[in-house]
Amino acid sequence: MDEVLREKIALFRYGLIAPLLNGQVDRVTYLAETSAKRHQVPVYGEKTYAAKTILEWLLFYRREGFDGLKPGTRSDRGKSRTLSAEMQDHVLALRKQYGGMPVTVFYDYLIGQGHLLPGQISYATLHRFLRLHGLLQGERAPEAERKRFAHDTVNRLWQTDASEGPRLKIDGKTVRTHLIAFIDDCSRLVPFAQFVLTEKFEGLRLVMKEALLRRGIPTLLYTDNGKIFRSDSLQFACASLGIQLLHTRHFDPRAKGKIERYFLTCKTRFYTLLEAEPATSLAELNERFWRWLEADYHRKPHAALDGKMPLEVYLSQIDQVRTVTDPKLLDTLFLRRATRTVKQDATFSLENRLYELPEAYAGRKIEIRFDEHRVHVYEEGKAVAEAKLVRFADNAYVKRNRPPLSFKELQAQGGDSDV
């Protein structure tokens, strides 16, 4: 199974465990309802899953992150993953001695103290083994029931959307701008917002990365059903960061009330300033907008906050904020993804451009991840090669190992051959 399919399956599994992960639902009720449903699963088709399977996925995610939800290949394939009878007795004796220890900690203890070799058995195998013998008492009790979103803490829920912005004259042409923004449900603080020229994923990626770096990681992200908000790239990034992506019901504009109210505030309090002195470039528009956002909106008493300022409320709970520990990680999480079959001349096309790879990739099906600056080949979740944009002037002088084309193939290519 290739990496793209493994990630799609992992994304499906994350969708099932996310309500449990974020404490949105009563665990018993949710597991009963979810295990009773039939689910349309990538690759596998329609399936049902037992409650214990869903709980195992939850444990895998907490232990290994998004990668823990991907189906094998396993590094220990072909080797025994069972314990000998003697080792089983030894593990049971240790478990009875350390019965109050959470199983996750107990697993690390067994490996750290040399009772088990790394990779000898998986965490899931140990968990099933202890459950079979009734020795899971070290597990934490389920969290308290939460029947609705908790909007009283910062970064619990962000809303995001895009709105039409003011028009600009660029190179003599009038163009429409679009404002992409995020707003924190609790404090009404705007983690980041920016005007862009198109409503494509590149703009959303730019704004969301900056929002995460400036104001931390939300638990829930709520948006509409627009194309960029349903993209695989956004879903993969959210799952990797532990963010549950939620979408409004179709034709339900009131569901995004806070972000819509913010856009109205921008129109009445910022756009009116542009009428007297229009911006002459996109860069100027954003600079003036950011100054207004920080000096006016964030520092103005808000009626919904009992007269407090959005920045004041946010800073009062700064200890609740989960920050991005590795900023470079965001560069890879938000890459767009696709699969391509490399031609025999080691080239492939992407968005009307031709790219080339080393000849070893000729004829292979590859996974690529890319942005507007670079295109990489990925294998098993890691970048292994960078594709180069073909420069036809240079390639006219490069010899390639390629089979001769038949007359039929030339006709299929419409005569556009570089041989």
The major pleated sheet works out as:
6 strands, antiparallel
Task: Give Rg in angstroms.
Answer: 26 Å
Secondary-structure element order, N to C: HHEEHHHHEEEHEHEHHHHEEEEEEHH
**What would you call the structural class?**
alpha+beta
Give the strand line-up of the largest sheet: 8-11-12-13-10-9
Number of strands: 13
Protein name: DDE-type integrase/transposase/recombinase
Organism: Paenibacillus sabuli
InterPro entries: Homeodomain-like_sf, Integrase_cat-core, IstA-like_C, RNaseH-like_sf, RNaseH_sf
GO molecular function: nucleic acid binding
General description of the model:
It comes from Paenibacillus sabuli. It is a single chain. The protein has 419 residues and is of the alpha+beta class. Helices cover 38% and strands 19% of the residues. Strands 8-11-12-13-10-9 form a six-stranded antiparallel beta sheet, with no helix packed on it. Strands 5-4-3-6-7 form a five-stranded mixed beta sheet. Strand 4 (173-184) and strand 5 form a beta hairpin. Helix 1 crosses helix 3. It is globular and about 85 Å long. The two termini are 35 Å apart.
Tell me briefly what this model is:
By secondary structure, the chain is of the alpha+beta class. The chain has helices at 3-21, 27-36, 51-64, 85-97, 103-112, 123-132, 201-215, 232-241, 257-276, 282-297, 310-316, 327-333, 392-395, 407-412, and strands at residues 39-41, 45-47, 157-170, 173-184, 192-196, 220-223, 244-247, 336-341, 347-350, 353-356, 365-370, 375-379, 382-389.
Question: Can you lay out the helices and strands and say which pair or pack?
Answer:
Layout: H1 3-21, H2 27-36, E1 39-41, E2 45-47, H3 51-64, H4 85-97, H5 103-112, H6 123-132, E3 157-170, E4 173-184, E5 192-196, H7 201-215, E6 220-223, H8 232-241, E7 244-247, H9 257-276, H10 282-297, H11 310-316, H12 327-333, E8 336-341, E9 347-350, E10 353-356, E11 365-370, E12 375-379, E13 382-389, H13 392-395, H14 407-412
Parallel strand pairs: 3-6, 6-7
Antiparallel strand pairs: 1-2, 3-4, 4-5, 8-11, 9-10, 10-13, 11-12, 12-13
Helix pairs in contact: 1-3
